[in-house]
Amino acid sequence: MNKVMSRTAPKATNRTPHPRHRPPTRHDTRRPGGAPPRKPSVRGRHAVPPATPRNPGTALPTPETASSPVRPTDLFAYRLLAVLSGQRPVHWMLRHTAGRAYDELTRLAERSPLRTRGARPVVHDIGYYVPAEGALEVFARIAAGNQLRALAFRLERGQDLRWRCTAVETGPRP
Asked: Is CATH 3.10.450.50 correct for 72-170?
């Protein structure tokens, strides 16, 4: 049985003549529902024109005042901290690891060595050593309240010029 929806004519009042609800949406999958989905833009970041300030008295940031790009050492320290403190799942780092590092990270994350009951852990200090071109050995001091813990990892740059974590270690748990 096909139902037909009928509406009565709106009464003459001081309100707007438009109905307050939206018309029913189409649920019939046999007929096309409109325009095809849009494709994402192919333009790169550098093709976007610079933003203009709304207020003419406001100047755009100069290269000295603009924020500097995030270093891979900082980025990976924050990512590993999020995983090892239980804030993010381990598979979040899957595409950012290479070799046995993912297995080491999985083993470490089971114990949650940087998880705390009180204050949320934060990256206190980061240092690194360059043993060879395209490789970084990084250490980070993780602070949680008045406790300091150690995190060490190795980054290697692949042929696609992306940094990947190849080894992870944490200090002994107090």
From this structure: yes
The pair phi, psi for residue 138, each rounded to 5°, is -115, 140
Q: Kindly list the domain boundaries of the chain, sorted by start residue.
A: 72-170
Token pair belonging to 32: 């096309």
SS3 (DSSP) at 58: coil
Residue found by looking up tokens 């813990």 in the block: 149
Side chain identity at residue 171, one-letter code = G
CA distance 81 to 108: 11
Q: pTM higher than 0.85 for the full model?
A: no
Instruction: State the CB neighbour count (10 A cutoff) for residue 137.
Output: 16
pLDDT of the residue at 38: 59
Distance of CA 119 to the CA centre of its chain: 22
Q: Residue 131, Cβ neighbours under 10 Å: how many?
A: 10
